Amino acid sequence: MKKLLNNWIVQVLLFLSLLGLTAYGSQMINDIIPPYFLMIAFFIGINLIMALGLNLITGVTGQLSLGHAAFMSIGAYSSAIATVNYDLPFLLGVLIGGLIASVFGVIIGFPTLRLTGDYLAIATLGFAEIVRVQFTNMKITNGAIGFLGIEGSTTFPIVMTIAVLTICLMVWLENSRNGRAMLAIREDEVASSAVGINTTLYKIQAFAIGAFCAGVGGALFAHTTTFIQPTDFGFQKSVDILSIVVLGGLGSIPGTIIGAIVLTAAPEILRPLSNYRMIVYGLLLVVIMIFRPYGLMGGVNLRQALRRAMMFPKKKQAGREE
Amino acid sequence: MFHKKRKSLVVMSVIMSALIMVSGCGASKPAATTPAADSKEPIKIGFLGAKTGDVAMYGLNTLKGLNMAVEELNKEGVLGRQVELVEEDNAGQKDQAINITNKLISQDKVAAIVGDPTTGITRVAGQIANSKKTVILSAGSTGMDVVEIGPYVFRDTLLDTIAAPATMKYVIQEKGWKNVALITSKNNDYSVSLSKIFSDAIDANGGKVVIEEFIQDKDTDFSGQITKIKSANPDVIVFSGYYTEGALIMKKAREVGIKAIMVGGDGLQGDDLMKIGGAAVEGSISYAGFSPEQPTPNTEKFINAYKAKYNNELPDLFAAQGYDALMLIAKAIKDANSADSEIFKDSLAKTKNYDGVSGSITFQENREPVKSPVYLLEVKDGKFALLKKVPVEIK
Questions:
Q1: What letter would DSSP give residue A137?
Q2: Which of A37, A225, A268 sits opposite B94 (nearest CB)?
Q3: Fewer Cβ within 10 Å of end Cβ, chain B: N or C?
Q4: Do the bridges between strand B262-264 and strand B112-115 make them parallel or antiparallel, or are there none, so unpaired?
């Protein structure tokens, strides 16, 4: 963590986001950036937070999950209930949303993590459906009509700060003992348990942290749209988040960031194409996956690549083969 | 090889991020040029709705009505200016709708927004439009908590709270069907809220809900519910959901020998009702905010023009409401002699007995529309036919 905080990129990002949190900074942001672009940046941030969570589960630990929208909805609804029904402050609501989602991540984790691959995917898919149906039938969530009257408390600096903190957390985790254990599980579960890695523990850890991120993202989403319905968190949402991770490159943090930017901004950038917009969008996905089958940043070591691009190689390095 | 690839990738990403930054900065510049009221620049009207996705039919038909209104308005112009439509597709998704609403208001500087045809998105877009002081007129939302958002939010639809009681009055008092079986689709927001209105209206008109059953959208087997309903022996089945489930319910009901017909909201109006239900749905009654039958002179003119423009296609509810929405806004702009939302929202709110193509429109003090008449439709020989026009009294 110390090493990470010494990194100048991290310092600049943290400084910028903390500046944004001040009254002066947020005023400046509202003056400089038109609301339309600010809103796109908003959703990039929210999607990024959720995608980083899924990247830990699916990309780093290798557990295919199709139920990320369920954690998102748990975070969204519990934070909304916390701020609307119990008058709690917004940031506390976000934290509660994340924690409750995380608890559910653990609860779903124990019985299903004995499964792997496609079987786990189906189980998480089923879990997501259960959650959605539950929210449709609960009284406190106002059922299918949707939860109304949520304060639009989310601001761009908050989203950005949480996104930067999430990136830091993920980078730190990747280089930690836990992160390496998760990577080992992805590469070979049997071998890693043979060398003494408690695979269940680390898989559940990944689910808990990933669900936490999704819950936080969901809470921010709820306090942005101010109105949520169970249909907002359907299967499509899970697939959208998964696409970000896969398109960016499974397990790659820079990849997830780029994926979140590209996939969130593309539908808006392509708006001038009007009726052909979604065709081009789909085409874009196909083309990217054909030319970069491991995702945009799959198999790319960003630091090495940057060094080479900037033409001052410190030493000859054998690049990681793709 | 890898070296080259990586380099180009990095260069590409740098260029892309630079582009995004440049486009972000560039767009902020023209922010100061708000067209003055007397300039000859066109009055821009934003359209918010789905052109793709599950609810695209609503959006596309609204757009057809809107385009007709634009054509007609531009013959004479509004305040000497042309009307221009800025249409955007939200694919029925909230996040896209938020982006579009912001774009229409801050980038395109529209005078007003027409949309969205669905309640959920109107609630979200309405919040933004209201805080940015831009009039938004939904040509389709019928749920609650829409106009309550604020003084810039309007709608021109036949509300369930007006149509459902009128329908129940007809069913209970004119037809004398007092014992009602009420069916709700639990995972359908429209059905849940409509059932509440139906059950209040049944009580108010002296009817009685003898049995209340619940189904889920996309269910196909209703034997359990229908068997219970048969033993309650109702005079009529009131179903508040959509046509697919409605058709399947009636098929099952006829199978077990229930003779009562089905009554429901505009959610029952899809051709699939007859395709799936066949003879079982014959006689089913539902209400609507528009019917091309027995038109008033104004409506007839609209229908003929619509048919001429769109290959003999008959306009539906959404086309008629879209057309009315823009005409209402244009009239308000003319009355206020200003295309500034802050000014013409007041003249729009004062609209009384406006002779729209989907019926007469009056905005009450709380901006909720009262529309008259309510069109009761009946399934006759496998088609929706006008049964009765029920006039609505304005309190």
A1: H
A2: A225
A3: C
A4: unpaired
Rounded (5°) CA angle A47-A49-A52: 105
Q: How far is A36 from chain B (nearest CA, A)?
A: 5
**Residue B51 DSSP symbol:** S
DSSP string, A254-312: HHHHHHHHHHHHHHHHTGGGGGGHHHHHHHHHHHHHHH-TT-TTTT--HHHHHHHHTT-
Per-window interface: A 243-302 vs B, CB < 8 A: 258, 261, 265, 267-268, 271, 274-275, 277-278, 296, 300
Distance CA B383, CA B394 (A): 31
Q: Does B297 touch chain A (CB under 8 A)?
A: no
Q: What confidence tens digit (pLDDT) does each residue in B250-272 have?
A: 999 999 999 999 999 988 988 88
CB contact under 8 A, A137 and B186: yes
| CA separation for the pair B123, B130 (Å, rounded) | 10
CB atoms within 10 A of CB A313: 11
Please name which of B174, B190, B58, B47 lies closest in space to residue B114, comparing C-alpha atoms. B47
Which of B6, B51, B127 has its CB closest to that of A226?
B127
In the prediction, which pLDDT does B25 show? 40
Burial of B96 (0-12, 13-18, 19+ CB in 10 A): buried
Query: Cα–Cα distance between A235 and B337 in angstroms, integer?
Result: 49
- Domains in chain B and their CATH numbers? 43-158+295-363 (3.40.50.2300), 161-288+377-390 (3.40.50.2300)
Report all structural domains of chain A as residue ranges with CATH numbers, in order of start: 45-309 (1.10.3470)
Span A154-200, pLDDT tens digits: 888 899 889 999 998 999 998 899 999 999 999 998 999 999 999 98
Write out pLDDT tens, residues B317-354: 899 999 999 999 999 999 999 999 999 999 999 999 99
